[in-house]
Design brief:
Number of helices: 7
Largest sheet: 5 strands, mixed
Order of helices and strands: EHEEEEHHHHHH
Distance between the termini: 26 Å
Radius of gyration: 17 Å
Low-confidence stretches: none
Structural class: alpha+beta
Shape: globular
Strand order of the largest sheet: 3-2-1-4-5
CATH architecture of the largest domain: Up-down Bundle
CATH topology of the largest domain: Glutathione S-transferase Yfyf (Class Pi), Chain A, domain 2
Length: 202
């Protein structure tokens, strides 16, 4: 099994989840600008959408879209406790978080990374994200993780997306519960392993 990733991109989320489960996997780094893998493969031939992450199985089949990949990984390893069982109410709470992160945070960051985005639009985008952070800060009050005391796939995804804030000059310091949460997630040994493997920390 192989994970196609780009350092610090949304592929960090399934990378963390793979390490949290202890599954065996290989990594294949992708240059997002050139759409080439480190070994020289045309990434468009791997994923016609041109985006990481992609999880490639030993039989050659591939799965894309981070929120889907993390659920698949977690379901193969129920003992890791990264997602509640299908049919349980809590399962849909985790999916609710995954949907919120992908639609209300992940995609909202995108214009901030594009040099062609007008400054006025970037200001509006930052204002909208600030409202989401304010709400998120309230949700994290008194909690270790999004679902309480249990780390789930949604936490791996939220941590990954919120890490982009520094790159686009978004200050998270006013959101004390969010910043404490980020510190807590980053301190997890498997999160540290994934970040070191991607060259994000020493």
């Amino acid at each position: 099994m192989k994970l196609y990733f780009s350092p610090g991109a949304c592929s960090l989320s399934p990378h963390i989840v793979l390490r949290e489960t202890g599954m065996k996997f290989d990594l294949e780094q992708v240059n997002n600008q050139e759409k080439k893998t480190k070994s020289g493969v045309d990434f468009w031939s791997v994923n016609g959408k041109g985006q990481v992450p992609v999880l490639e199985f030993d039989n050659g089949e591939r799965l894309s879209e981070g929120p889907v990949i993390v659920q698949w990984i977690a379901d193969q390893n129920p003992a890791a406790g990264l997602i509640p069982a299908a049919g349980k109410h809590e399962r849909y709470r985790v999916q609710e978080w995954l949907n919120f992160i992908t639609s209300e945070l992940h995609k909202v960051y995108a214009p901030l990374f594009r040099p062609t985005t007008p400054d006025a639009y970037k200001d509006i985008t930052k204002e909208n994200l600030g409202k989401r952070f304010d709400w998120l800060d309230k949700q994290l009050a008194g909690k270790q993780y999004l679902m309480g005391d249990t780390f789930t796939v949604a936490d791996a995804y939220l941590f990954t997306v919120l890490r982009w804030s520094g790159r686009v000059k978004l200050d998270l310091s006013p959101y004390k519960n969010v910043t404490a949460y980020m510190d807590r997630v980053q301190a997890r040994p498997r999160v540290q392993e994934a970040m070191k493997a991607e060259g994000l920390i020493q």
